[in-house]
Structures are given as structure tokens and as C-alpha cells.
Amino acid sequence: MISRLIDLLPRRIGQNILRSLKLPTRRSATYRLAVLFCIGLVLTLVFDRHAVAASESGNHLSSVINQFKLPKSSIIQLLETVGLFVGGIIFCIVLDRWFSNRSGQSSNIPLAEQARQLKQLKMGYPEGMTNLEVLRTQGLLENRLRPFGLNVTWTSFLSASSLIEALSNGTIDFCGGGGTASIFSQAADHVFVRVAKEKYTAPKGQAILVPEDSPIQTLADLKGKKIAFDKGSSAHYVLVRSLEKVGLEFSDIEPVYLTQPEALPRFRRGEVDAWVIWVPYTATQARSAYPGRSIADLESIFGDKASVEVPTYYYAIPELVRDYPDLLKVILEEVNEAGTWAKRQELEAVQRMTAHHEIDPSILETLQKHSGERAIIPIDDQSLNALQHQANIFRDLNLIPERVNVKDGTYSLQTKQNWTY
């Protein structure tokens, strides 16, 4: 019955009503009452077969009112209308309580039962994302969930935008990637929830490369040049802010929208003047065989604000948040464990290099500080405010069709849970 009512509404309104009833949110009671009121009104209009007749007899009603006398038939019709409206509201309240009870019951189901119900956990990852690479290769999640009989599968994707799209269509259940992609996905009405973020972004984790023999020396030299980057990715935002830093507009360059595997051969052939890249293509050992030199990186563009300005988020399907909260907690705990392990390995490698005077001691000091801290943290207002700033910039540039609210509880889960054992 609800589905039929939703079909009577404009498509987008219907989707939003269903989402308000079904997805885990932090919406206020006022909002929920407003939704129930609207649905109750629709129920009244649909089921009150006397509504049209009543509207057609408006002149008669006016004369009755003027005479301060209501015929018995009009009183009956009025009572029927009020009764149907109240009944609609009661029905919606019962429906809302049913969904709430279902959500509450699922949160009380033990981890073992949640694992048996889910049966298979589908993980997605972009190549080069350290925490998820470690989680996958070390088998941390499989070891944790094997006693419950839950099968874990892994699928790699080229970009965060393709990962979130896969979440929306049910191909995967959990993934990680840049925050910028989630803005474009939210604007496209994809269904996903931001559930956590990495605490630190590598200061050299993204860079703008130019060919070794290029006359381009500074960001200002990018004016009028062809620049390759993945549209809707964090590289997109890095480029916009880089141009802004030297007083250039996005319209001052010629964008060439390419995924990183597509961009590499064209960069080598000199078909683009610059390339905005991210891990693993930055100037590290993993990229030592790649051409080009860096004219800017996250550190030079954002300073110590890189982790806030260019965050990495973790995403889940709404059902995982709503129906399998203990499983989600396990996933986040193991992601954090993988990040801690990776930081220890990086610290040990840098310590060996420092001993041979191959690296700046200040880098070692920074890594030592970070090695004792969490790898991922809950989503907070600071991170969402920065992401909202990104979203506003893309809307002002007409790169997304409308303004989005990243604090919408449908898309962002703010929790005090620290995912500790």
C-alpha cells in the first residue's frame, strides 16, 4: 500500500519519503512527524472518496455556514474525512514504530547471528589505499570473522567514485576512498553512508606532475595548459585549490578527464602538459619508474591542513549500518589495526633510512608521533565542515547540479564509538 502511495508522488519525493522511513538517520523528531503528517494527508486524499463530492458542493456548504446550520449528511461526511485522516496518521505511526523496532532488534542481535544473516561480506578497495591493502593482504578481517562462518570477498576499483557507485547498486558492502567522490555521488543520489575517516593524509600523497623537460616550473605556469585528472576525484579538488592559490580560475586551464591508468600513457607521450595524481603514483619508491617531476603536493598546497582538506573516508551500505552494527564495528576495528600495522612498518623503514642519512629527521619525528595514534577516527563536525566547503566550491563551479548537505544523516554517520576492543 505504501509503495502505491509513493508511486502517486513525484519520483524524487517518493524516494526521499522511503529513505526517511528505511535508512539509519539522526533526523529530529520534528522532521519525522512532518513526514508522517504528509503521508497521512496523502492517505486521506486517496481513501476519502467523498472529498471530490464535498469540494463540488462548496456553494451549498457556504450557504449552510451562513445559516449556522449543518445538515446531518454534511456532519457525517466531515466526521468520515477527519476519521480517515486520523486513521492515516495512526497507520503511519504504527509503520514508523515497526521500522524503529526492527532497527532496534537488529542492533541487539549478537555478532554471530549478524554474521550468519549476512553470510557474505563484499569489500571494495582502490589500488594503493594502504589501510585496505594491508587489511586484505594480511587477512585480518578473514581471521576475525572466520569463526562465525562469514565469507569475505575483495574487489578492486579504479576510483572512489566507482566504489561508491558499486555500493549504491549493491555490488559491494564496504569500501574506502577520497571524500571528494562522495560529494559527486551524493549529488547523483547514490545510496551510501560515510562511517569513518582516516586521521592523517600523507603530505606527499598527491602531487601535480609535469614532464622532466617541461618549461612549467610553478603553479602559475599551468595557465592555458592541458591538465589530466580523474573527474570527481580528490585530484579534481586539489587542482581547483592549486589554481586558486595562484589566482587562476578553473576556466584558465584545459581539463582532460582521464582515469589514472588512462592518463599515464598519454602523459608519457606528451599529450597532456600536467597530471594530477594520487597514491601510488606519487614520488615514492612505488612510482620511481614513472616519468615527470612534481611542481606541487598536498603539503605545499594545504600545509598542515592536508588531512582536513583532502580526507579519506570509509563508506558502507545503509543496511550494514542499520542491520549489522556489530559487524560494522569489527570492520572498523580491523581497518584501524591495519593502519596501525602500516604506520609501524613505515616508521621502521624511515628509521633505517635516517640511520644512513637518507631522509630528513623531521619526517621521522612526524612518523613517530603518528605511530602511537589511531589510524581512523569517527566522523566529526570539523571534517564534515571541510567536506561541505568542497561541495560548495563544486556547486559554485557548476560541476554538481545542486547544493548538497554532507551532514545529512542519511549520508554521514556521526558517532562517539572508537572501535576499540
From TrEMBL:
The chain crosses the membrane at residues 29-47, 75-95. Keywords: Membrane, Signal, Transmembrane, Transmembrane helix, Transport. Pfam families: NMT1. The keyword Ribonucleoprotein does not apply. Its main location: periplasm. CDD domains: PBP2_SsuA (cd13557). Residues 120-350 form the Solute-binding protein family 3/N-terminal domain. It is found in: Periplasm. SUPFAM superfamilies: Periplasmic binding protein-like II. InterPro entries: ABC_SsuA_sub-bd, Solute-binding_3/MltF_N, SsuA/THI5. Belongs to the bacterial solute-binding protein SsuA/TauA family. This is Sulfonate ABC transporter substrate-binding protein. It comes from Scytonema hofmannii FACHB-248.
